[in-house]
Write a structure and sequence with these properties.
Layout (H helix, E strand, L loop, with lengths): L1 H13 L15 H7 L49 H4 L11 H25 L12 H5 L5 H4 L12
Helix pairs in contact: 1-2
GO cellular component, one term: mitochondrion
Pfam family, one: NDUF_B8
InterPro entries: NDUFB8
């Protein structure tokens, strides 16, 4: 009888069927209850305490319909088995993303590319040209008239004081 209640609660929680008037009942087939409610032995050697606890599907409560539950705030019926990861899958856990992460990353990359291309366009096409022509000096920029690179070198420092 306990396994039937566990299976009924788990199926109520995960099957996306229309809610009848009153309390939710997602169970259509008794065979489905018996298969789901069978005790499953876990292979987790790290957690020996949860060996006989039922393995429930990892579906967030935020994905479930808000109507037809006896506890509307938590979206569960009284007597349902609490999931082992209740803190993560409850209504108060982390928000479930509205779109898939790879789609969000693609959209973010497209937005960044758009902003960068808009900035490049503004810099190149919208910036006015200089009103005057830049001055050009003969003889490679007056290098020879100013004495050349040999004359324009910095003096070497010496440790001795000059008189």
């Amino acid at each position: 009888m306990l396994t039937r209640r566990v299976a009924t609660a788990a199926l109520r929680r995960t099957t996306p069927a229309a809610a009848p008037a009153g309390r939710r009942n997602y169970v259509d087939n008794v065979k489905e209850i018996q298969d789901y409610g069978a005790e499953i032995q876990r292979e987790d050697a790290a957690e020996p305490i949860v060996q006989n606890y039922p393995v429930l599907p990892e579906v967030s409560r935020q994905r479930l319909s808000p109507f037809g539950w006896t506890d509307m705030l938590e979206r569960r019926n009284h007597g349902d088995v609490v999931h082992a990861k209740h803190e993560l899958l409850s209504m108060w856990g982390p928000d479930v993303p509205v779109i898939e992460p790879h789609v969000a990353l693609r959209r973010l990359a497209l937005a960044m590319l758009g902003f960068i291309s808009l900035g490049a366009f503004v810099k190149t096409a919208m910036t006015p040209e200089h009103p005057a022509v830049r001055r050009e000096y003969p003889f490679s920029g007056l290098s020879r008239e100013l004495g050349g690179p040999e004359e324009n070198q910095a003096r070497e420092e010496s440790l001795e004081e000059e008189d």
